[in-house]
Amino acid sequence: MPRQSITVQSPGRINIIGEHTDYNDGFVLPAAIDKKTVASLHRNGHPSACRITAGNLNETLNFGLNQVKPLAGGWQNYVLGVVHELQKLGAQMQGFDGSFKGDVPIGGGMSSSASLECALAFGLNELFDLGLSKTQLIKAAQLAEHNFVGIKCGIMDQFASMMGQKNRVILLDCRSLEYRYFPLELGDYQLLLLNTNVSHSLASSEYNRRRAECEEGVAVIQKKYPEVAYLRDVSLSMLSDFQNSMPETIYARCRHVVSENQRVLEATQALTAGDIRKLGSLLYQSHHSLQHDYAVSCPELDFLVDQTTGLDFVAGSRMMGGGFGGCTINILEKKYCGQFVDNVAPKYRQRFGYDLTPYFVSIEDGAGVVAQP
Ligand code: GLA
Fold this sequence. Notes:
Blueprint: E1 5-15, E2 27-28, E3 30-43, E4 49-54, E5 59-64, H1 76-88, E6 96-102, H2 112-127, H3 134-149, H4 156-163, E7 168-173, E8 179-183, E9 189-199, H5 202-224, H6 236-240, H7 248-273, H8 276-293, H9 299-308, E10 314-319, E11 325-333, H10 337-352, E12 357-359, E13 368-369
The site of alpha-D-galactopyranose has 11 residues, from α4.
């Protein structure tokens, strides 16, 4: 008897370090968090009619499995995109109804979109017993975003949402998809996310532009080093050969990616050694590089990072995720967290007119079936 219904969940993610490296075939260090999308799906007996409701918005999408096409915009494209990508993998599905609800802040840089995509991909795979591997589901979720949402994202968010493990961060090689878990043991320190509550509209257009700028850099580098396929293959000393033969902006973009890859690997060494101060200093370096070389920060994020400088109890701080808004990720001594937030929030409000939302996230498991009572 085929399964008739299922409830699944898939979380948002943080990223300790390794920003804008994933689509350059590089390294990232994300983890799944305690904020997630929960999706309930059931077969409705129809061969192709589907109906799915976004619980947070109270909006419903009706569509047929035989005519899945992108719409003008909105959450619907995440759903349609996932269904379409699963179909491209040969998935035979029948009509289903469902709903989903989440608490991953939208535009918060915690990847609410990957959380939704992965919940759907994972849920449909279970409901219809499609037999797809987690890697196939991750790639389908990523391609949904490319082909239906229009953002040429890397694989980090979907990978973390699907593969996360409690209290562990994932060192992912985005080229081979080899991965290794590292326990996140911060001792007297803890993670604190600070949500700027802004999400600048530049985010998607600039994201795709950065990707193109990296490709432009690679094309120049390939003239001398034909073996280079992505910035992953480039070292800082190789890159320095091109300082005068590349537009300055492109050079800066490449320098961010190449140095950030290096920082990810150093961060795993710092984690293994329990050297939280070193880890924190890498976060600051990452922010500096994202702000100046990659130019994906914004005044709100920079303000929050600046507020931490000179504070002994803060090990590190940086913008997290794609940029142009969302959260900073901070590593600070536990006992000072409350006082720090109380001090910064009014200053932030006074400067920008927005509330600052702190999140004391915990690291949790990735996608899974939710036990039904
Ligand atoms: C977004 C994308 C990811 C990654 C980050 C930046 O979250 O979805 O693939 O590129 O930005 O590191």
